[in-house]
Amino acid sequence: MAGRPLVVLVGAPGAGKTTVAAALSRRLGVPFRDTDRDIEKAAGRDIPDIFTNDGEAAFRALETQALRTALAEHDGILSLGGGAILAEENRRALSGHAVIHLAVSMNQGVRRTGMAANRPLLVGINPRATFKTLLTARVPLYQEVSVFEVNTDLLAVDQVVDAIAAWLEEQNT
Ligand SMILES: Nc1ncnc2c1ncn2[C@@H]1O[C@H](COP(=O)(O)OP(=O)(O)O)[C@@H](O)[C@H]1O
Ligand SMILES: O=C(O)C1=C[C@@H](OP(=O)(O)O)[C@@H](O)[C@H](O)C1
Ligand SMILES: [Mg+2]
Questions:
Q1: Cα 12 to middle of ligand 2, angstroms
Q2: How far does CA 66 lie from the centroid of its chain?
Q3: Is 33 helix (H, G, I), strand (E, B) or coil?
Q4: Vertex 152, ends 129 and 101: CA angle to 5°?
Q5: Domain residues of the chain, as ranges?
Q6: Which residues, 6+ apart, have CB-to-CB distance to 146 below 8 Å?
Q7: Which of 112, 113, 119, 155 best tests ligand 1's pocket when mutated (most atoms within 8 Å of CB)?
Q8: Which of 11, 33, 56, 63 has its CA 20 to 30 A from that of 88?
Q9: Helix 56-73 and helix 47-54: axis angle, to 10°?
């Protein structure tokens, strides 16, 4: 099952990584994988449960392991959790891969994640301030690991897929 992801999607929560990765994999007819799902499957629990009962550090350790495994064996489209780029070890592991940054503004990010309470880091009294702090800390890291960026704010999911498919085509010509 050894492989190499065709594309790895990074970006803040609500950028659309999971949704776009699934849509892109359908478009290209290649497998889809999401490290958050891998973690939930392996643990037999969902992410809020892992955060609440084991803490963020435990989640990050599972995430590093899930990333390492997926990079080694997945040969389709891979989406990561928004915080996967925080560990230097993970950024190093992503080096040389076709990493695409799905960018999202605070307004859109809060709007898209506000509906679901399944992102433990964004649950709180001021999601806008939390999201802004998160972007300030992470955007430089998303940019550091990526080789291409799509600003998703004004695009529908299919249009984000179009942009990535066009980029891939360019790489192959
Ligand atoms: N380009 C987009 N335009 C509008 N809504 C979007 C877009 N991309 C994703 N969404 C919606 O935003 C929410 C979060 O998407 P998701 O794929 O879970 O993001 P991520 O994995 O980056 O956190 C979902 O409800 C999804 O349908
Ligand atoms: O930004 C983060 O630190 C996180 C983002 C989530 O994934 P999405 O970016 O897919 O929402 C998930 O990995 C976890 O809740 C932590
Ligand atoms: Mg996701």
A1: 8
A2: 13
A3: strand
A4: 85
A5: 7-168
A6: 10, 99, 100, 101
A7: 112
A8: 33
A9: 140
What is the interface pTM, i.e. ipTM, of the complex? 0.99
Q: Going residue by residue through the chain (173 aa), what tens digit of pLDDT does each one get? A: 578 999 999 999 999 999 999 999 999 999 999 999 999 999 999 999 999 999 999 999 999 999 999 999 999 999 999 999 999 999 999 999 999 999 999 999 999 998 666 787 887 778 899 999 999 999 999 999 999 999 999 999 999 999 999 999 999 88
Domain 7-168 is classified in which CATH homologous superfamily? P-loop containing nucleotide triphosphate hydrolases (3.40.50.300)
Q: Binding site annotation covers 18?
A: yes
Name the DSSP letter for residue 39: H
Query: Is the pTM of the predicted complex or chain greater than 0.90?
Result: yes
Atom of ligand 1 nearest to the CA of 34: 21
Q: How far apart are the first and last CA of the chain?
A: 27
Q: Which amino acid residue places its CA nearest to atom 3 of ligand 2?
A: 83
State in Å: Cα 2 to ligand 2 middle: 26
13 lines ligand 1 (CB under 6 A): yes
